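Hey, I was hoping to borrow your eyes for a little while. For a while now I've been wondering how a particular protein folds. The fold is given in discrete form, as structure tokens running alongside the sequence. Could you read through the record and tell me how the tokens relate to the sequence? Take your time with it, there's no hurry, and the full record follows here:
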Amino acid sequence: MLDFFSARGLRAEVTEGIDLEQGVTLTGARITIGSGPRETLRLGATDVAPAHLTFERRADGKGWDYFTTDQGFTEVDHGNPRTGKVRAGMWFRLGNETRIDLVRADVPATTEPGSDDTPNTVPLPVALGILGALAAVAVFVSVGIGGNSSGPSMQTTGYVTGADDLATALESCLQETVRAQRAVASNDPASPYFRIMEYRGSEPARATSAQADLTEKVRGLLADAHFLLRENKLLEASGTLRRLEYVLPVSVANCPILAASNFDAALLEVRGSK
């Protein structure tokens, strides 16, 4: 069986706190840990926030990135407290008492014997295309969400299905001349954007490469959000759309993608809280 965004060999385990010995294996596209009702791993500590810690499969299928909320205290072992690359052996402290360690785990059964722990994966462009098609179907059949008379349609749907030109919309977002006032780490979600700003007009090839990276990040988040919508995980879909604000640090007024995603995120939050 094929696994779209397959990751092998890592497990997040609670090693300190009242949720001791609970854990979750990093598989699929996203894992959320926190106190919210829709978390992959729901914790009971009072100082753990909803979606306190999120793991997302990287677009190239090779490893994971982590993101933490700004709604609670977080400490990361030798890493950026907000976002960075995941590695075996690192730990996270959520609040004052909960510690989570990333440890090696058994290879899931979806890996074929004799594959040397190499997962069966679908290439990213194919996976995104499939997710886009699934999202398109979901938008039309979901009660109150699809493009029917019972509720407003999602404004980002066209970017996922290809009905709207993502490249043209993204170019509008890049018209701003914002430049980084500080060194931008490669694992910063906004890194591709700032690299475009740095290289445009001086190094076209590097600017083109950075723009391809940015397009992939945006397309991936939109596809992930619509996939979560299909699974009726409205609040998680909204949170995914909100991440575009980190990837595209521009004014909403000048960026149709952000305007559409913010509208959709607000819509999903309202519907998800009912």
Observations:
- Strands lie at 10-16, 23-25, 30-34, 41-42, 53-57, 64-68, 74-76, 83-85, 91-94, 98-104.
- Residues 1-8, 109-120, 137-152 have pLDDT under 50 and may be disordered.
- Residues 204-230 form the longest helix (27 residues).
- The longest strand covers residues 10-16.
